[in-house]
Amino acid sequence: MEYLANLAYVFKTQGGQDYEYGDLLSTSLFVHVDINPASRAFKTSAGLATNFQYEQKHTDKGSEVRDSGGTTLLMGPDITIKANDRISVFGSLMFPVHQDLGGEHQELDYVWSAGGRLAF
Q1: Alpha-carbon span 111 to 94, nearest angstrom
Q2: What is residue 51's three-state secondary structure?
Q3: Residues 44 and 80 sit within 8 Å (Cβ to Cβ)
Q4: Cα–Cα distances in angstroms (integers) from residue 118 to residues 32, 33, 77, 84, 115, in the given order
Q5: Cα separation of 90 and 74, whole Å?
Q6: What is the rounded distance in angstroms from the CA atom of residue 70 to the CA atom of residue 24?
Q7: What is the C-alpha to C-alpha distance for residues 38 and 20, in angstroms, rounded to an integer?
Q8: What is the model's pLDDT at position 7?
Q9: Whole-number mean pLDDT of the chain?
Q10: What is the gyration radius of the CA atoms in the chain, in angstroms?
Q11: What is the pLDDT of residues 14-24, one digit of tens each?
């Protein structure tokens, strides 16, 4: 079993016309289990992806923007395929478990991501 985690905090500064987006905290946890551990090529692992996001309220000309900020918790399946020790592809499909969007926002139906890794 493999555990991966990350944490990112984005500091926002005041932009044009005295508008400032709220700072953003995003943290993720991935738990993987090897599906074919004996394989030398195209080793596959599947698991659960979890992401928590918190955004502070935005401000416009020093006043808090009511319909901004909030928290979201997403969870869903995750898969990684390693061609070898240097090359892999991955993907996840997460669905909202909790959404407190801080006002009138469009709610998320799902979030998917895909990518690749190349180690030098």
Answers
A1: 5
A2: strand
A3: yes
A4: 19, 21, 22, 10, 10
A5: 17
A6: 10
A7: 52
A8: 97
A9: 92
A10: 18
A11: 877 889 999 99
Give the torsion through C-alpha atoms of 38, 39, 43, 48, to 10 deg: -30
Instruction: Answer for the pair 49, 36: CB distance below 8 angstroms, yes or no.
Output: no
Tokens at residue 50, please?
């979890």
Q: Where are the beta strands (DSSP E) in the chain?
A: 2-10, 19-20, 24-34, 43-55, 59-60, 63-64, 70-82, 87-100, 111-118
Q: What is the pLDDT of residues 22-68, one digit of tens each?
A: 999 999 999 999 999 888 889 999 999 999 999 999 999 889 998 88
- Determine the residue type at 109: D
| Structure confidence at residue 24 (pLDDT) | 95
